[in-house]
Amino acid sequence: MSIADQLFGIPVLKVQDVLGQQTITRVPLAPPEVAGSLNLRGRIVTAIDVRLRLGLERRENAKASMSVVVEHDGELYSLLVDSVGEVLSLNVKDYQRNPPTLNPRLREFSDGIYRLNGSLLVVLSVASLLNFSGRVDAA
């Protein structure tokens, strides 16, 4: 999947579904990264704007987002991303820990990286993305 022209990956066993653009209902007083909620076959799913969670600019309204539905602690979450590509089989020997030069905000939400044909694929940690307990808002 890609977000702001950066390749990202999520372990395939975490992914429950991939959806096109969905109708999202805003949740009052939710953090900005919480885009709202959506109805997935009768289940209410919290939608997280991964761009905002990673500290990137908000997506232009004209651009459609996609949803990667993941399960975490028994709940379903929709991770809103720019696009979703193919499922890749990556060799564990090519996995690398986060380099010290990786953007600190990406490092906070990353489990590691893969170098793919001159591109960098950042492996996202679903648990870190969905952990809002360490959040401190300015007054």
Question: What does this protein structure show overall?
Answer:
The protein has 139 residues and is mainly beta. It has one domain: Beta Barrel (OB fold (Dihydrolipoamide Acetyltransferase, E2P)), CATH 2.40.50. The protein is 9% helix and 37% strand. The protein contains 3 helices and 9 strands; from the N terminus they run βββββαββαββα. It has helices at residues 50-53, 104-108, 126-129, and strands spanning 2-3, 6-9, 15-19, 34-40, 43-49, 66-72, 75-81, 110-116, 119-124. The protein has a 5-stranded mixed β-sheet. The termini are far apart. The model has no long low-confidence stretch (mean pLDDT 87).
Quaternary organisation = single chain
**CATH class annotation:** Mainly Beta
How much helix is in the residues?
under 10%
Radius of gyration: 15 Å
Number of helices: 3
What structural category characterises the helix and strand content?
mainly beta
Relative strand content: 35-45%
Number of domains: 1
CATH superfamily: CheA-289, Domain 4
Biggest sheet, open or closed, and with what strands and sense? 5 strands, mixed
Distance between the termini: 35 Å
| Spatial order of the strands forming the largest sheet | 3-6-7-5-4
Mean pLDDT, nearest integer? 87
- Number of DSSP strand runs: 9
